[in-house]
Design brief:
2 domains, alpha+beta, globular, DUF2252, DUF2252 domain-containing protein, six-stranded antiparallel beta sheet
Length: 466
């Protein structure tokens, strides 16, 4: 599925070594890279200008959509952070690393976690975005996640003390859960998941708990595809078509639309070849009816993304989302390169390795030229966090949940005994990560201000997006 474990986690001891021996090896690694060193952040003298990094990361994107990308990023320092994974990837490369590698999310911030339904229809809480997944130092995911809580907390005008506590709780939860996983067998870790319903029941805020329970009920009471069909389509004669809502959802016009559909049909057939035989049989009952370009997220804006409408002979719909798969922002900053040259396959295999359960239609494809894609269901009982309604105590609980989910994901491709040995049982690591997060939040704000200036100077175009 990914590189041999000896390649991904090159410091892991022989499989015959006991958990205690691997824990001791992890503890010994603190001598070379003290846990307290992870609090450090100071921009290197040769740090690349963040605006130049953004411009480079926009090369190859759909130019007409770049103003939307920059408009979304300029909304706040937190929105900027979500779209600036490429900037932080370069920064993380200059920070201390213990030397333990595993499969990373790569864009590990708090909005890339949430609830969704497994193929068995169980609701779980997990990471849900893997565009940047790549093998690398485990600390990078922890630092990006923890810093996102400080930045989001500042955006919500919470106190500096609370913001630092959010980051501390991410790292502390990661430590505790990783220690628990270090006591399990590899198979037990593989079976582990985080039950969303039980996780919500653990919450102390009764009002927010009721709100989340209502969201779960709404998300699961009817088929996601039927809801999307009613919302996104209209009848064009006898054929169902996706509604245009430019600039965020639209069909190319004129001859371009016919060409896009022709390519989409070719790409769809290639996608089917990436699926297991049982899923091929299932999707053989559906045919491709329509395709539209859809603008999604913050960091993905400008990449070629869209929605495919599939219909069965009896009129049942399935919506698939296709997203362009570009090189991971981490690739240029790690020594050991991943094994996948197909970027869609890289994302799919990384996701399957890290998630407790992945979308049953998750697959990859390409256009036989220079664009790679991965495909999944458009929505399947997905439940995203709503930061605007969270109080400090809610965000603290959410920080713990995200730290837990990240530890579970890392434990699948890494060695939890080795990592636990390095982190230890005290607060040293959590204190260091929270310290780093505060410093990096300040760096992010400086970079955001540079972007604001670049927009004012018209070096970056912005749209008047609705």
């Amino acid at each position: 599925m990914v590189e041999k474990i000896t390649d991904i986690a090159e410091n892991i001891l022989d499989s015959q070594a006991s958990k205690a021996e691997r824990y001791s090896k992890g503890a010994a690694m603190r001598k070379a890279v003290p846990r307290s060193s992870h609090k450090e952040w100071k921009a290197p003298k040769d740090r690349e200008d963040p605006i130049e990094v953004l411009v480079k990361s926009s090369i190859g994107r759909i130019e007409d959509l770049l103003p939307i990308r920059y408009r979304r990023m300029i909304e706040s320092p937190f929105a900027f952070y979500r779209g600036a994974a490429s900037i932080m990837a370069g920064d993380l490369a200059s920070t201390p690393i213990s030397g333990i590698n595993l499969q990373l999310c790569g864009d590990c911030h708090l909005m890339n976690f949430g609830g969704f339904a497994t193929p068995e229809r169980k609701l779980v809480f997990d990471i849900n975005d893997f565009d940047e997944t790549y093998p690398g130092p485990w600390e990078w995911d922890v630092k990006r996640l923890a810093a996102s809580f400080v930045i989001a907390g500042r955006w919500r005008k919470f106190s500096e003390k609370s913001c630092k506590e959010f980051a501390w709780n991410v790292a502390d939860s990661y430590r505790k859960r990783m220690q628990e996983y270090s006591k399990l067998s590899a198979l037990q870790i593989w079976y582990a998941d985080i039950d969303l319903v039980k996780l919500i029941d653990l919450g102390k805020d009764e009002e927010l708990k009721k709100f989340r329970q209502k969201r779960i009920k709404k998300a699961t009471e009817t088929s996601a595809h039927e809801k999307e069909f009613a919302k996104l389509t209209y009848k064009d004669g006898t054929k169902a078509r996706i509604k245009d809502e430019p600039p965020l959802l639209y069909h190319p016009t004129g001859d371009a639309e016919k060409e896009i559909f022709k390519q989409a049909d070719f790409v769809h057939q290639r996608y089917l070849n990436s699926l297991p035989d049982d899923k091929k049989v299932l999707l053989s009952r559906y045919s491709l009816h329509d395709v539209a370009i859809k603008v999604v997220g913050v960091g993905s804006v400008g990449t070629l993304c869209g929605v495919s409408l599939l219909m069965s002979a009896t009129g049942e719909p399935i919506f698939l989302q296709f997203k362009e798969a570009r090189h991971s922002v981490l690739e240029a900053h790690v020594k050991n390169k991943g094994k996948y040259s197909h970027q869609g396959e890289r994302i799919v295999m990384g996701q399957k390795l890290m998630q407790s359960a992945s979308d049953m239609f998750l697959g990859w494809t390409d256009n036989d030229k220079d664009r790679f894609f991965y495909i999944r269901q458009l929505r399947d009982a997905k439940i995203k966090p709503i930061l605007e309604i969270m109080k400090p105590e809610n965000l603290k609980e959410y920080a713990k949940a995200c730290g837990w989910a990240l530890a579970r994901a890392h434990a699948r491709s890494g060695d939890p005994s080795l990592i636990s040995g390095y982190i230890g049982k005290g607060n040293v690591f959590a204190n260091a990560i929270s310290g780093f997060s505060v410093l990096y939040a300040k760096q992010n704000e400086l970079d955001y201000n540079k972007m604001v200036k670049a927009v004012k100077e018209r070096r970056l175009p912005v749209s008047t997006e609705i």
